[in-house]
Each structure stands twice: as structure tokens, then as C-alpha cells.
Amino acid sequence: MRASQFPLFTSRETPADAEIVSHQLMLRAGLIEKIGAGLYTWQPLGLRVMRRVEQIVREEMDRIGAMEVLMPAVQPAELWEESGRWSLYGPELLRLTDRHERDFCIGPTHEEVITDYLRRELRSYRQLPLRYYQIQTKFRDEIRPRFGVMRAREFVMKDAYSFHLDQASLEATYADMHNAYTRIFERLGLHFRSVGADSGAIGGSVSEEFMVLADSGEDEIASCTACGYAANTELATSRPVAPTADTPLPAEERETPDVHTVAEQCAYLDISPMQVVKSVVVMADETPAVLFIAGDDELNLVKVAHALDAEDVRLAEPDEALAATGVPRGFIGPKGLPEGLTQRVDHRAAALVNFSSGAGRADWHWINLNWDRDLPLPPCADLRTAAAGEGCPCCDEGHLVIDRGIEVGHIFQLGTKYSESMDARVLDEDGHKQPLIMGCYGIGVSRVVAAAIEQNHDDQGIIWPAPLAPFDVAIVTIGADRSPDVAETAERLYSELRAAGYDPLLDDRDARPGVKFADIELIGIPHRLVVGARGLENGAVEYRDRTQPENEQLPVADLPQALG
Ligand code: ATP
Ligand code: MG
Ligand code: MG
Ligand code: MG
């Protein structure tokens, strides 16, 4: 590609609303352009990087025998009603109505659609196991889209789904996926870790996240200094809210009719405590804040989960709760965020919880919680509930240290959550109908681009890991207008590099050398060759590795082999 035909829309100024370095650099380097909250155009330069991520993901999915499929972004509400998530998913699900007044959503994930596909098409258990993947646009109406494409509303995900007759087969595919993810993130040149995770709104029991380590990461990872155990602390703090139905209640609580534990409420409504937690969003900051409305903001769910576990939970009729808290009536309801969002309510906080049985019933309740103190992490000896600073629950030797991470991948053993509710079954060898056992596996393809920049940059700009770079090598001409030798050598190098399999950018712009160098550094091209009249007198071009501070002189005759 020639820079004269491939405009680099770079900028020297740091955009005011970009808080983290990847967001700043993606805007400055002209990779993305914002068109609305959490909505971005991928400019040609950025798209080249995303395509490179996709390519590696595709190769590794193909390698483990997954088939590529493409499902629609717009999904009928009926499928989500069948799975129960139409009412449970909360306001992160963007719902829309067509001209015939039928309800749809824009897919935040595709479990329902793929389950529907397989229940229609699967003929025999002999066709199992099956693995599918797609690379596709998702929409999640994030409550706080931020950090550019890191937490966007519209973003690109690789999502994969597997179907099995038995648990052993699911576990085998889960292990293959784990290995494929490890290869993908290694090939992308990222510093990452896989950690035990909470299954969130997707569901299932076993799940692991792939975390790119970075100080700006929104997740916290606890890892053992001795045995390598690692878990998202979101998991550590959200587990204790899952009491069993037989958790005994303190006597005084049992005697108070309007006080219920989460366990009691869940037993009464026949839903899992995680469903309750997943349907609450907290808006909390240093001072006591309003807890309100259904949703799925995992950052804050940690706090809700903990609060629900720690406090007596008083159910009140919405009107009573509204009167007690002074929250305006408009707060109630599943549709969007009403006015008065940040209104404070003394030292008391209120949570609006959508208790849904999953069968389309959605009862709205206010929950009042004390929110006037920092809640401690719960003490717990179980591996899944390990918390920061403890002795490691796995080996009892090391202690847990905390790192920050960016969630770039998440794999789940779903079990029969979707196949049971959506009646996706197959006859087994003995002629018995069995629900399909499922797994699902996601990678935030567009988020990976931002995560890579968080780990690879300096004051001058991005330093792409070679497999992600939009161009492998830049050829910068100096004084090409005055020296035919410069122009001719640059052209020759350009075609030789292409012939050798490189993807070069020939910076043939009529611009000052300083401007060209700054652009090439900002957009992070791994290798730079400078062709100038003075160097050519000695048969040399100037070479700079983006990771190195010094230039080298390379004999023109040695190129392109000298690039290695
Ligand atoms: P997060 O905890 O960051 O909200 P999630 O757990 O909700 O992510 P999953 O449902 O596990 O996300 O989706 C699979 C992957 O999609 C995530 O691991 C992440 O890399 C990516 N992803 C999720 N939400 C976003 C988003 N808003 N913007 C960009 N990528 C996202
Ligand atoms: Mg998450
Ligand atoms: Mg999320
Ligand atoms: Mg996740």
C-alpha cells in the first residue's frame, strides 16, 4: 500500500474524553472513529488489525474442527422467551419492534439462535459432537460504554458453541477450546492468564476467562504465588450469594414476616440466586447511592451480590419502597433508565429486582439495603470463593496476589441450560430422548485490538506485536522529488518486499521527514526503512526496529533478507 493512496488520519492531540492509553492511541492513530456512545467506525487502518486478529482466531478454530457459521444479528423475542432470558437479561438487551409489532432483540450473544438451529437440523446422536463458530457483530446496551472499543455497545465477537451427548465429550471439547485459546493469545503476542470465572448471564457451572494483564483492566485477578491457582475476584465475591434453599435462618428473622433472605426468596420463586444477582444493577460510588433497576453490569454486581448476602433483605411493595426512599415512580419498569438516575437516598439504598421464574413472569420488587459502609470480602475456605490476601485455598503454601486484567475470552460448560428450556433433544443409542449438552466460547475480537495496545505502546505511540501490525514494514522516502535514485530504490524495495511475503507501506507522501517518522511510530509499524540520497551514496538504508531506540544502517543489497 502507498501512503499517497491510503490516507493516515493521524492526530497529535490527545482526545479529551479518552481515559486510557489504548483509546487515546486508537483515536490518534486513526484506527477508529466514534459516531455515538459505544459506537465506532473501524477505519481502514484499524480494520487491517482486526482482520489479523480474526485470521488467527479462524485458523485456530478451524484447526480444532469447528465449523464457521453466520447467524443473524437480529433475533426473534420468542427464542429468548423460551430460554427465559427475555425477562432476565435486563436493559443490556436492546429490544426493538418491527412494523408488524413483533418483538426482536439485537443479539448480545447467540445461545438461543444456535440451539434453535440444532434442534431443527440435528438428525442423530451419531452426528455429535458438533462445534460451530462465527465472527460477528454483537450489541450490548452497556450502562457505561467507555474506553473506546474496549467496552463498546456494538463490538465484534468470535462466539463458538458445542453440542454433545455426554459430559465427557463436552469436557474434551472444552479442553480443546482452552488449548486453542491459549494458542490464539500466544500467537497474538499477548501477556495473558486463564482464570476461574463466574458464568454470569450466560449460565452454566464451569467457566474460565482469558485475561490480558494490564493496569487499566476492569477485572481483578487473584493468583497464588505458589501453585498458580488464579480466579477473577468477581467470582470470589459473587459466590457467597448462592445459599442453598436449606440455609437455616436466624430465629429472629424467621419471626419477622417481611424479612427474607435471598435463599428464602429464591426457594419461593424457584430461581437461582445468581439469577437474582444478575438482574440487579447497582449504581454505587463512595457515598451511599441508589441501587436500582434490572440489568447485567458485572462490575457492580459484585457489590450487590455481597450486599444481598450480608444484609437482611426487606421486600416491600414498590409504592412503599418508593415512599420510603423518595425515588421517583419512573424508576420502576424494565425499559431503560428513567430520569432521576443519580438521585441520592440518604444512607439507605434501594435495589429494584426483577424476580423472574424464567417462564415469562416478571415481578418487580424493591429491595432496601444498608449501603453506608464498605463491605468486607467474605471469609471462605472453598477454592471458588478464594479472596485476596488469604492463604491460598489450593495449596495452603502461597498467598493470593492481585493483578488487573482485561477479559478477552471466556469459555463455559453450559450443560443443558438452553437445551432443557428450549427442548433441544436427540434420541440416544437406546432410543431415549436426551437434552443436548452444550458449551460456549467467546473471544472479544475488537477488544483484543485495544488490549494489545494497552500492553504494547510507548510515548511515541503503538508498538504492534508483529502478528497484529496493520503493515509489517514502512518504507519512508526522503527527498524522493529531488533524487530519482531514492524514488527508484524505494519502489524496488516495495516490490521486493511484497514478493517476499511482506505487507509494506510505502510512505511516498510529500511531507517533511519528521511528520512521516512521527506517523509511522504512532501507528506502530514494527520495521521502518528510510531511503535517502545520503545513505544511498554508501549503498545503505536506515533501519529502525520499533522496539529499539537506535537506528542501524543496512546495505540495500541485503534486503529484504536482512529483515529476517
Ligand atoms: P465484561 O465482563 O467485560 O462485561 P462479559 O463477561 O459480559 O464481558 P462475555 O459474555 O463473556 O462478556 O462475552 C465474551 C467476550 O466478549 C468477553 O470475554 C469480552 O472479551 C467481549 N466483550 C463483552 N462485552 C464487550 C463489550 N461491551 N465491548 C467489547 N467486547 C466485549
Ligand atoms: Mg465478564
Ligand atoms: Mg458484560
Ligand atoms: Mg465473560
From TrEMBL:
<dbReference type="GO" id="GO:0004827">
    <property type="term" value="F:proline-tRNA ligase activity"/>
</dbReference>
<feature type="region of interest" description="Disordered">
    <location>
        <begin position="544"/>
        <end position="564"/>
    </location>
</feature>
<feature type="region of interest" description="Disordered">
    <location>
        <begin position="238"/>
        <end position="257"/>
    </location>
</feature>
<keyword id="KW-0067">ATP-binding</keyword>
<keyword id="KW-0648">Protein biosynthesis</keyword>
<dbReference type="Pfam" id="PF04073">
    <property type="entry name" value="tRNA_edit"/>
</dbReference>
<dbReference type="InterPro" id="IPR045864">
    <property type="entry name" value="aa-tRNA-synth_II/BPL/LPL"/>
</dbReference>
<dbReference type="InterPro" id="IPR007214">
    <property type="entry name" value="YbaK/aa-tRNA-synth-assoc-dom"/>
</dbReference>
<dbReference type="InterPro" id="IPR036754">
    <property type="entry name" value="YbaK/aa-tRNA-synt-asso_dom_sf"/>
</dbReference>
<dbReference type="InterPro" id="IPR033730">
    <property type="entry name" value="ProRS_core_prok"/>
</dbReference>
<dbReference type="GO" id="GO:0002161">
    <property type="term" value="F:aminoacyl-tRNA deacylase activity"/>
</dbReference>
<keyword id="KW-0436">Ligase</keyword>
<dbReference type="InterPro" id="IPR006195">
    <property type="entry name" value="aa-tRNA-synth_II"/>
</dbReference>
<dbReference type="Pfam" id="PF00587">
    <property type="entry name" value="tRNA-synt_2b"/>
</dbReference>
<feature type="domain" description="Aminoacyl-transfer RNA synthetases class-II family profile">
    <location>
        <begin position="33"/>
        <end position="465"/>
    </location>
</feature>
<dbReference type="InterPro" id="IPR004154">
    <property type="entry name" value="Anticodon-bd"/>
</dbReference>
<dbReference type="GO" id="GO:0005524">
    <property type="term" value="F:ATP binding"/>
</dbReference>
<keyword id="KW-0547">Nucleotide-binding</keyword>
<dbReference type="InterPro" id="IPR036621">
    <property type="entry name" value="Anticodon-bd_dom_sf"/>
</dbReference>
<dbReference type="InterPro" id="IPR002316">
    <property type="entry name" value="Pro-tRNA-ligase_IIa"/>
</dbReference>
<dbReference type="GO" id="GO:0006433">
    <property type="term" value="P:prolyl-tRNA aminoacylation"/>
</dbReference>
<comment type="similarity">
    <text>Belongs to the class-II aminoacyl-tRNA synthetase family. ProS type 1 subfamily.</text>
</comment>
<dbReference type="GO" id="GO:0005829">
    <property type="term" value="C:cytosol"/>
</dbReference>
<dbReference type="InterPro" id="IPR044140">
    <property type="entry name" value="ProRS_anticodon_short"/>
</dbReference>
<keyword id="KW-0030">Aminoacyl-tRNA synthetase</keyword>
<dbReference type="InterPro" id="IPR004500">
    <property type="entry name" value="Pro-tRNA-synth_IIa_bac-type"/>
</dbReference>
<comment type="function">
    <text>Catalyzes the attachment of proline to tRNA(Pro) in a two-step reaction: proline is first activated by ATP to form Pro-AMP and then transferred to the acceptor end of tRNA(Pro). As ProRS can inadvertently accommodate and process non-cognate amino acids such as alanine and cysteine, to avoid such errors it has two additional distinct editing activities against alanine. One activity is designated as 'pretransfer' editing and involves the tRNA(Pro)-independent hydrolysis of activated Ala-AMP.</text>
</comment>
<dbReference type="InterPro" id="IPR050062">
    <property type="entry name" value="Pro-tRNA_synthetase"/>
</dbReference>
<dbReference type="Pfam" id="PF03129">
    <property type="entry name" value="HGTP_anticodon"/>
</dbReference>
<dbReference type="InterPro" id="IPR002314">
    <property type="entry name" value="aa-tRNA-synt_IIb"/>
</dbReference>
<keyword id="KW-0963">Cytoplasm</keyword>
<dbReference type="InterPro" id="IPR023717">
    <property type="entry name" value="Pro-tRNA-Synthase_IIa_type1"/>
</dbReference>
<protein>
    <recommendedName>
        <fullName>Proline--tRNA ligase</fullName>
        <ecNumber>6.1.1.15</ecNumber>
    </recommendedName>
</protein>
<comment type="subunit">
    <text>Homodimer.</text>
</comment>
